[in-house]
Specification:
The chain has five helices and 14 strands. It has 222 residues and is α+β, with helices and mostly antiparallel strands. The strands form three sheets. It has a six-stranded antiparallel beta sheet with strand order 9-14-10-11-12-13, covered by helices on one side. A four-stranded antiparallel beta sheet has the order 1-8-4-5, with no helix packed on it. Helix 3 packs across helix 4 and helix 3 runs parallel beside helix 5. The mean pLDDT is 89.
Length: 222
C-alpha cells in the first residue's frame, strides 16, 4: 500500500487527541468508513483506524500514551498507509473467516454489568461467550470501548462483516444480524439485532426500536 506523508498540527476534541489529514481520504485512498492504517507521527509508529469527519475528511486518533511523547510547538511529521486490518488483537487469533468462533444461529441475551459496557456485551452475545472472556481478548478495563475496538475484536473472532452504514434517521431494512449504533440519553449506545429482535444490553430484548434513534449499523454475515 502507498505511504502518505505530510505535516499537520495536533488538536484536542472532547478530551481526545487527533492529527488532521490535510486531503480527501476518499479520493486519495479510494476507501471509506473506519479505515485501518499503520501510522507514524514524529517517529512514533502505531496502528489505528482513521476517524471519519464527513465528506472524505479524516483524523488520525492519538492515544495519551503516544501524544505524551510529542512536542506540539511545531507541526508534526506524519505518515500513514492503509492496511488490511489491525494486528493488535487478531494477529494471534485462533479463528479466521473460514473458522469463526461459532456459527450465529441465535443470540442469548446478556445485560450490561456496568454503564458503558455495551460494546463488550454485544461482542459477548455475538461470540456466545462471557463478557469477562471478551474483555480478556480486548485487553480492556471497565470502560466504554471504541467502535474500532469492537470491529477489531469481531475480526479476532473470525466474523465476516461489512462496514457501518448510516441510517440518517430514516427507516431502514436491517440485515438478519448486525450491530447497531443508536442514540442513548447522554451518548451513543451499541445493540445487537438478530432475526427480528433487538438485543439491547441496557433495556432487554425488544420487538422494535425507534428508527429515528438509529445512527448506523454494520452487518454480521451469517
Amino acid at each position: 500500500m502507498m505511504m502518505h506523508t505530510f505535516k499537520s498540527a495536533f488538536l484536542i476534541e472532547s478530551n481526545r487527541g487527533y492529527v488532521k489529514i490535510p486531503f480527501n481520504v476518499w479520493d486519495v485512498c479510494g476507501q471509506k468508513g473506519l479505515i485501518p492504517v499503520e501510522a507514524e507521527i514524529a517517529g512514533v509508529a502505531f496502528e489505528c483506524r482513521l476517524v471519519p469527519k464527513g465528506n472524505g475528511n479524516y483524523y488520525i486518533p492519538v492515544t495519551k500514551e503516544i501524544y505524551k511523547k510529542f512536542d506540539f510547538s511545531e507541526e508534526l511529521d506524519v505518515k500513514f498507509k492503509v492496511i488490511r486490518g489491525l494486528s493488535r488483537i487478531n494477529s494471534n487469533s485462533p479463528y479466521s473467516k473460514d473458522n469463526p468462533i461459532r456459527k450465529i444461529d441465535g443470540i442469548t441475551y446478556l445485560r450490561q454489568p456496568w454503564n458503558g459496557s455495551c460494546g463488550q456485551v454485544c461482542l459477548a452475545m455475538i461470540a456466545g461467550i462471557s463478557v469477562d472472556e471478551v474483555m480478556k481478548v480486548m485487553k480492556c478495563a471497565k470502560t466504554q470501548v471504541s467502535i474500532s475496538k469492537v470491529i477489531e475484536t469481531l475480526d479476532y473472532f473470525g466474523f465476516s462483516h461489512g462496514a457501518f452504514v448510516y441510517a440518517k434517521g430514516k427507516k431502514v431494512q436491517l440485515p438478519k444480524c448486525c450491530i447497531a449504533n443508536v442514540r442513548g440519553k447522554e451518548k451513543s449506545h451499541l445493540i445487537v439485532y438478530h432475526d427480528g429482535k433487538y438485543f439491547d444490553p441496557a433495556h432487554g430484548i425488544l420487538d422494535s426500536y425507534p428508527y429515528e434513534d438509529m445512527i448506523s449499523y454494520m452487518e454480521i454475515n451469517i
